[in-house]
Amino acid sequence: MPSSSSTPFASRPSALSLALLLLGLAMPAGAEIYKSVDKDGRVTYSNIPIRGGKRLDLGPVPTTLPAPRGGSGKSAAATPSPANFPRVDDATQKSRDQGRRSILQAEMNQEQNLLNEARKQLAAAPQNAKAQDNVTYHEKNMEALQKEMSRIK
């Protein structure tokens, strides 16, 4: 009977095991994402299956990094557009910005009303976690709308 010292690969992984390990490390990690909409219309995304949720097909995960930005410090807006790139005159852009501003303002007004209602419900039941979550939800929506409104020129 041969001793364990006579087999040179007894304590080392086989070439096949090593190749499989390296192949596994080289493959991109693909995550399964699930989307669920509750009865209040809130959307939840998770990497854990959710009851009533649907698995999203996000396609392949990119395996390359984006190209680095130029070191000149110029923003993308400062780089010249191609000659055949469509241009918008100032009056048209101002009209578009005004339309966007009015849409965002209407959304902010509606969200403020929802936030006020959520705060009333919380004041009526301060220990209600769902009411607190609802207030937080509408506060975050207001912050996002205000941030978007500040981006309009």
Brief description of this entry?
With 153 residues, this protein is mainly alpha-helical. Helices cover 45% and strands 8% of the residues. The protein is built from three helices and three strands.
Strand count, sense and barrel status of the largest sheet are: 3 strands, antiparallel
Fraction of residues in helices?
A: 40-55%
Shape: flat
Secondary-structure element pattern, one letter each: HEEEHH
Which oligomeric form is depicted? single chain
Total helix count?
3
- Approximate strand percentage: 5-15%
Report how far apart the termini are.
85 Å
User: Could you give the order of strands across the largest sheet?
Assistant: 2-1-3
Mean pLDDT: 79
Radius of gyration: 28 Å
Q: Which structural class do the helices and strands define?
A: mainly alpha
Number of strands: 3
Low-confidence stretches: 1-6
SSE topology:
Elements: H1 15-26, E1 33-37, E2 43-46, E3 54-56, H2 90-124, H3 129-150
